């Protein structure tokens, strides 16, 4: 097997959500291996700054950037086309962009947030997968890498919306892998389940205690790990704080034990207000009396 450097040199890699966290670290790692990069993010300014730093650091790294929302299928078509026109081929698409959910229990969550979380975390992955697929058919080797989470393995308290999106990514990707293996086995379909990575994903006030307690692994580490495991075609890439434990527990423990264990961990966080028995989310909005 070639070195990682040799393997990725001149391959074209699409990374979504590349302006921050895991995506930014992936861009850095692939740039250091001599890959061509097509980067997108909804934060255009931060993305350009990321690309400029890469070009400076890696001397003439080939990078294109696109400010876009991964939930927009038209934007995807034109982004993928731009990458193909620029580099002449696309080899890898890492559907990484994602956002946190309400960070509150179901009765304290709003539907608009659930819809947005599904639009970005799940449909963003779907659009990326569908848009890039036709460009990979003629390549000698290619990969679509979809980022789920360890919350795509267990249902964690205060994360029903986020878990729903990450379980969806997992189901979609596993099914797609099974389908494509039959006819185009040269295209690898891979899933990433990060554990707690120290990024900016937890932006809400009520997710700060979770961030401090769990998001501790450096993004650079998971990015290097992903690059290596993509090269080795590992179907499920599990990496980061608590990821090994959660993966094992999700496979071995009965659901009621798992719920207790995860519930206990989450209750240690500072979210008591949402767990009041008289929370408005438990109240009937308008009591109707049948006559
Ligand atoms: N950090 C963790 O502990 C952790 C754990 C499990 C899974 N993940 C997943 O890893 C991925 C990367 O997250 P991160 O931790 O690096 O977060 P991050 O917030 O640091 O980076 C995410 C990037 O995605 C971009 N983005 C968000 N919505 C977008 C959209 N609609 N279109 C385009 N770009 C968009 C953001 O602007 C940001 O630059 C996400 O899918 C996340 O769910 C993270």
From TrEMBL:
Gene3D superfamilies (UniProt xref): NAD(P)-binding Rossmann-like Domain
All residue ranges annotated as the Ketoreductase domain in the record: 11-206
SMART domains given in the database record: PKS_KR
Pfam families (alphabetical): adh_short
UniProt key word Secreted: no
Membrane-traversing stretches: none
Protein name per its UniProtKB record: SDR family oxidoreductase
Source organism of the structure: Alteromonas arenosi
